[in-house]
Amino acid sequence: MTKTLFSWLSILSAILVGGMLISCNKDDIITKDTPPRIILDSETAVYEVKAGKELTIAPKYENADNATFVWKVDDEVKGSGSAFTAVWSEPGTYYVNITVITDGGRASEDIRVEVIEPGIPYISLPFTGNEVFLKTGTYYMLTPEIANIGSEELHTEVVWTLNGKPYSTGFTFHFIAEAAGDYAVSVKSTNEDGADERQFTIHVLDNLPFTLEFPSCSYFNPSTRRFTFPGRTIMLRPILTGLDANSYEWTVNGDATGCDTEIFAFTPDAPGEYVVNLTVDGSVSASVIVECVNATEESRWRRAGGASKAKCNKVFEWVPAPGQFIGETQTGGMTGNETTHESAILWAEQRLGKAQYVSLGSFGGYIIVGFDHSIENTETGYDFSIQANAYFNLATGNGGSNEPGIVYVSQDVNGNGLPDDEWYELRGSETGKTETLQNYAVTYYRPSAPKMSVQWTDCLGQSGAIDYLAAFHRQDYYYPAWITEDSYTLRGTRLKARTTQNSETGMWDNNCFDWGYADNMGSDVLSSNDSGGGEGQRNGFLIKNAMYCNGEHINLKYIDFIKVQTGVNSKAGWLGEVSTEVFGFEDLKLVGK
């Protein structure tokens, strides 16, 4: 009995001791073999910081006693503490890794750091250089474009000084040119991210400087030389700024012509060069050379042959106004390499070859194309078509998207294969109306920093901006990269905009014009895609609608070049600027070839 009891006590003791030993070993395993755990304070593992600002990443840890910490930035060791602090000077995406090592194992987390541009309130002014000229008595109001003032977390202060003394605060500068003289102006904008400052001089004069010149052929062809056939009239109209002319005096090779109006209709009867001079108000003069070529319209005609193609085969110039699809690589189809005019026109040529759109931007933006033959004036129907993407609002049967492009045509009068001859606008439904402005000009100004709106002024003294739409686009600039100047001016016919907003829905419509314009659902639509996108929409055009700048008809037997230019200066709220798009050009006589 005693032996048996001892045996059971011995067994029970062994079991208890063994259990205790097992329990201690188990605890020892938990202590030594459980790996650490990293708990980031960002659920997405993405951190955002402005360039030049300090960012600290401080995770929480479990099971990390006596741990070793290794921080790497783009695979390079940068830190060894439990938290990591760094300053990135350049915007971009950086990859950070934190690895924690203990006796129980290791843990690792990948982190992405997005370094963004600081919200510095950069200032853009709606003029180039640092001078403004005002006539005495003029009231002048200036509202510069300032970056990042729409940011909720940044408060921007703007201070103006005049001749070194505090003048006013706020985003708008008001000035009355009471007395002639020079006035030094400074504007400084400041927020927590930094500051920017601009200086310029206002010259107040009793009489403003003025210019008298003849228009150049195109933006990339600065020549003012004009060409015509013997017996064909050429209309000469100068560009006059800063002066209300009271008298005009035209001469040809020094001989008076008797013409005393702004437009001179000159008809040379023999080949040769003619120097045409205009004197305004008896004191200001400018000259232009008119070359009457030793050829006839018939001799320059490049008739279509068996190998001729219906579609355009050459883009000569693409000079868009600023717009949301200019420089856009995500939705605009651009590559980001279009930094010269040669690369830009090659891109446009390839796009049209695949029936993909090329945007002309806001008012005045244009494209010039050519064919491997002359397009004949058939006199029996539409001679050529332009494909675009206009469409009706299917719910209303009107509205929708119509972004009218003015169409011009030209003949290769001098026979050099280049579009450096006379341009003739095609008559449209708005021609001759009081609200239609010919020779309208808009100047666009390069923004001083990325992602800023583009400011403009026009020949009527008005100003505005092509709004940067951050919700839709990501390119740095709407200003064309291949325009090297800090401002450029586009000139042409402007139609009165038909942009409307529905007060109930807030939706915007660009209503159509009756006929005569590209990218427009007028009565001259040959085909359209009613699915809503508009791709495949085409308008037909008649060469017989060609006219001189004074509205007179000109009879052209054929054309060699076509130019389309955005014809309105308008924007549709959150949709942005109204901009003509083109997809292709086609000689309707050769459709199918």
Please give the structural blueprint.
Layout (H helix, E strand, L loop, with lengths): L1 H32 L3 E3 L6 E5 L3 E4 L2 E3 L5 E6 L2 E4 L4 E4 L4 E11 L2 E12 L6 E2 L6 E5 L3 E4 L2 E2 L10 E6 L2 E5 L3 E4 L4 E11 L2 E12 L5 E3 L12 E3 L5 E3 L2 E3 L6 E5 L2 E2 L7 E3 L5 E9 L3 E9 L21 E6 L21 H13 L4 E2 L6 E11 L7 E5 L2 E3 L4 E4 L3 E6 L13 E3 L10 E9 L8 E5 L4 E4 L20 E8 L4 E3 L6 E3 L14 E3 L9 E5 L4 E2 L10 E9 L14 E2 L1 E4 L6
Parallel strand pairs: 2-9, 11-18, 20-27
Antiparallel strand pairs: 1-4, 3-7, 5-6, 5-8, 8-9, 10-13, 12-16, 14-15, 14-17, 17-18, 19-22, 21-25, 23-24, 23-26, 26-27, 28-30, 29-46, 30-45, 31-43, 31-47, 32-33, 34-35, 34-45, 35-44, 36-37, 36-39, 37-38, 40-41, 42-43
In brief, what are we looking at here?
This protein is mainly β. It has 2 helices and 47 strands. β23 (248-252) and β24 (255-256) form a beta hairpin.
Description:
A six-stranded antiparallel β-sheet has the order 28-30-45-34-35-44. The chain has a five-stranded mixed β-sheet with strand order 2-9-8-5-6, with no helix packed on it. Strands 11-18-17-14-15 form a five-stranded mixed β-sheet, with no helix packed on it. Helix content is 8%, strand content 40%. It has four domains: 37-116, Immunoglobulin-like, CATH 2.60.40; 123-205, Sandwich (Immunoglobulin-like), CATH 2.60.40.10; 212-292, Immunoglobulin-like; 314-590, no CATH class. Residues 1-31 have low confidence and may be disordered. The relative contact order is 0.12. With 593 residues, the protein is mostly beta strands.
